[in-house]
Design brief:
Elements (H helix, E strand, L loop, with lengths): L3 E6 L4 H12 L6 E7 L5 H12 L6 E2 L5 H12 L4 E4 L5 E2 L3 H11 L5 E9 L40 E4 H6 L10 H12 L3 E12 L16 H15 L4 H19 L9 H15 L9 H12 L2 H11 L15 H10 L5 E8 L8 H13 L4 E6 L13 E3 L3 H9 E6 L14 E4 L17 H4 L5 H8 L4 E4 L2 H10 L5 E4 L7 H4 L2 H11 L6 E5 L16 H8 L3 E5 L12 E2 L2 E3 L6 H7 L2 E4 L4 H5 L6 E4 L3 H8 L13 E2 L2 H9 L6 H14 L7 H10 L22 H6 L1
Parallel strand pairs: 1-2, 1-4, 2-3, 6-8, 9-10, 9-12, 10-11, 12-13, 13-14, 14-15, 16-17, 16-20, 17-19, 20-21, 21-22
Antiparallel strand pairs: 4-7, 5-8, 6-7, 18-19
Helix pairs in contact: 1-2, 6-7, 7-8, 7-9, 8-9, 12-14, 13-26, 19-21, 20-24
Length: about 725
């Protein structure tokens, strides 16, 4: 039997789960059982947990459906536990180094206590200075084990479940389980303390709790706030059944109603039923108030008296008198022209246009990427929705003739932004855009993240200096309702990089649909348009932007590459869109396609891709054509930009570090050999997970038509997809 069973619920935290598991398995004391609790086999967290179980026999994954909530997940973990002691860890928290050794030593000293309370630290989401809220609660606690009556102020209801260790035999004997509630820790903490015969404390920080930027789910407005009273009633009823003396229950009563009054004084948490909440709380207060209980002083004491009297109107009046002024968004950029600013403010008070959608791609560079693909599918499936594309003035000439557009900054632009029900972007709208109640903002993203994004860039000085205000960035993130993802890796990284309350749509990238719907005729047409000689092998060279460079640097000598790779090779050069100057120049066997509007067309035309660290590789992999990584400065790029995984260890094809190596893999044909195909297959399995040709349809049905998730078309398995044919295949045929 292991000394400890550590239970780690993982719902919604797959991006950080590995860090939590590593913090447990890396403990100096290895006598443990680690129990990750996952939603279901095949979920992102389950895949992470399964990998750990394959490598370490101490890992025992179990499953609990999301509908069972946190309480169900923890109870499932308790059911699988075999250790002498049980402790809990949230999936995005950390067990600090040396924690288990310290717990083991303290449990030995205190000889089999039922509950050992421990200190924890709360670390801000931006990794700021942590606090230790548990330390004051342990002041005055005896040095050894003691009975709860010796320190009645230590009730357990002020501590989360992961700030204590529980003897498993004690839990089994008293049939203790987490109550089914949003406030399950409150009920659990009270019930375990009431049942415990001997307890102790450890004055050492054991767990680092990493706060979410979006705050605690318990503070979110909604009917679940009424669950708080269920837990208060459960704990106080159990205390009454045990006929505990008043001196034991006074602290418990005061701490529970401190939570109740905190919610009652914030009616915004209860959009409906605030009066009913107050009246039920008043009944509980009068029924369970211990003999000799003295209300606190000051304003809190007044709230106690009003609650006891059931004086709802007076309580609301007191709250109104003490309420702070509502914070306003100051200093945000607005339309510059005074008239436009006033019109925008006026339009914000007009009703939303339920059949208006506004699209924008790459900060107004034109009709492109995921927004364009969604727009096209919406015209087919939701023709009643009028669509307006936003575009910079110097790009308006390139807009398709049948697409309505508005120039960014114009009066018309601000009008549609104020009135539109749907706003779709692959980057972000300006800070001055107001998120109106009832509007729907869809962030489509424009690539799979290899390099760090969002707030993850803050620790890399070169890119952080160019990123602007992270406060403003997060203000824009707060407008998102949905965030699109093409694979689970992206889902997890977006959760880290853009913390917010948005919902992830694992539907694939609509811009990649064409890789499964294009025909041989489409491929031949694009090659003719780009000027690719018939019968040649077109190699697309698409390097990414480097934050430590001041301009575009082409990398290898492409003319020399063509000469060394073979006379049949031509290069399609596509620089990062930051360097698009619209030249479209060609030079012999090197064809500059940077200015071509559609990256998807260029990919369809190419027989192979050479890139360094550009996210184009993840999209191109859908075509199942050869990919070569040219990583001549990988170490520098990794250190200056930051990356989410080691591309050289998990590449989509051969990795070349010099121009000679790059030419060689084409000259000898290994770029398209069996070994290259094998690593490409593994890469596609991981990163082409949701791209199947129907992503745009899924997005339109879910976001614009409001269909439920179960009604959207399921993702076609990778093995059943048929990518668009390559031109080289056609030539051989």
């Amino acid at each position: 039997m292991p000394r400890f069973s550590i239970i780690v619920p993982s719902h919604g935290v797959a991006a950080r789960l590995s860090e939590a598991l590593d913090s447990v398995l890396g403990q100096s004391s290895g006598d443990l059982q680690l129990i990750p609790v996952c939603d279901a086999p095949g979920s992102p967290a389950a895949a992470v947990a399964a990998g750990y179980a394959e490598r370490d026999a101490r890992v025992t994954p179990v499953h609990s459906p999301p509908s069972a909530g946190l309480s169900g997940a923890r109870n499932a973990g308790i059911g699988a536990a075999t250790g002498a002691y049980v402790l809990f860890l949230d999936g995005d928290d950390l067990l600090l180094p040396g924690a288990l050794a310290a717990l083991d030593a303290r449990l030995t000293e205190t000889a089999g206590v039922d509950v050992l309370y421990v200190e924890h630290e709360r670390a801000p989401w931006w990794e700021g200075e942590p606090t230790n809220p548990a330390a004051p609660l342990f002041a005055g606690a005896p040095k050894g084990a003691f009975a709860p009556t010796d320190l009645p102020e230590l009730t357990g209801v002020q501590l989360p479940a992961w700030s204590a260790v529980y003897r498993r035999g004690f839990l089994t004997e008293h049939q203790l389980a987490f109550p089914d509630s949003h406030f399950t820790d409150l009920g659990w903490g009270g019930l375990t303390t009431l049942a415990a015969g001997r307890i102790a404390v450890l004055r050492r920080v054991v767990v680092r709790h990493r706060l979410r930027r979006q705050g605690s789910r318990l503070n979110v407005p909604g009917p679940h706030q009424h669950d708080l009273l269920d837990q208060v009633e459960l704990v106080l009823t159990r205390a009454a059944e045990r006929e505990l003396p008043a001196e034991r229950t006074r602290a418990l009563f005061e701490q529970l109603f401190s939570r109740v009054l905190k919610t009652a004084s914030r009616p915004e948490r209860l959009p409906s039923g605030h009066r009913a909440f107050f009246r039920r709380a008043a009944r509980l207060y009068r029924r369970h108030r211990p003999a000799g209980f003295r209300v606190p002083g000051g304003s809190l004491g007044v709230q106690h008296r009003l609650l006891a009297a059931g004086a709802y109107s007076a309580f609301r009046a007191l709250r109104g008198a003490n309420q702070l002024a509502v914070h306003t968004a100051e200093g945000l950029p607005r339309p510059r022209a005074v008239r436009t600013r006033l019109r925008y403010a006026r339009d914000l008070h007009r009703p939303l246009d339920e059949n208006l959608a506004v699209y924008c791609a790459y900060w107004g560079r034109g009709y492109a990427c995921n927004p364009a693909a969604i727009h096209a599918k919406a015209r087919e499936l939701a023709p009643h929705i009028r669509s307006v594309f936003l575009v910079e003035a110097d790009q308006a000439h390139a807009m398709p003739k049948d697409v309505e557009y508005a120039v960014i900054g114009s009066r018309r632009c601000w009008e549609v932004l104020a009135r539109a029900k749907y706003l779709v972007n692959n980057a972000n709208f300006a800070e001055g855009i107001v998120k109106r109640p009832g509007s729907v903002h869809l962030q489509t993203q424009h690539g799979t993240p290899l390099k760090t994004m969002g707030v993850d860039q803050s620790t890399y000085p070169v890119v952080a200096a160019q990123s602007g205000s992270y406060t403003k960035l997060l203000g824009r993130v707060d407008r998102w309702d949905f965030n699109l993802s093409s694979n689970r890796h992206s889902t997890q990284m977006w959760e880290r990089a853009f913390p917010g309350s948005w919902e992830a749509l694992e539907y694939g990238y609509p811009r990649n649909d064409v890789y499964y719907t294009a025909t041989a005729e489409d491929v031949a047409r694009v090659r003719r348009e780009l000027g690719v000689p018939e019968g040649s092998t077109a190699v697309l060279y698409a390097p990414t932007h480097r934050d430590h460079h001041t301009g575009f640097e082409p990398g290898p000598d492409l003319a020399a590459f063509c000469a060394a790779a073979g006379e049949h090779v031509v290069v399609l050069l596509r620089a990062h869109y930051f360097y698009d100057r619209g030249s479209g120049r060609g030079d012999g066997r090197i064809i500059d396609v940077t200015a071509h509007r559609s990256a998807e067309d260029v990919c369809l035309a190419a027989d192979a891709l050479v890139t360094d660290y550009s996210s184009i590789m993840f999209d191109y992999a859908n075509l199942d054509r050869p990919i070569v990584v040219y990583a001549d400065d990988w170490d520098v790029y990794r250190e200056t930009r930051g990356v989410y995984f080691d591309l050289t260890a998990e590449p989509p094809g051969p990795v070349a570090r010099t121009p000679e190596e790059l030419a060689a893999v084409f000259r000898d044909g290994s770029y398209a050999g069996e070994e290259a195909a094998a690593v490409r297959a593994a890469f596609r399995e991981r990163f082409c997970e949701f791209d199947d040709g129907r992503a745009a349809e899924r997005v339109v049905r879910r976001v614009l038509l409001g269909e439920p998730p179960e009604a959207v078309p399921p993702v076609i398995p990778l093995a059943q997809r048929v990518p668009a044919p390559a031109a080289a295949t056609l030539v051989r045929s």
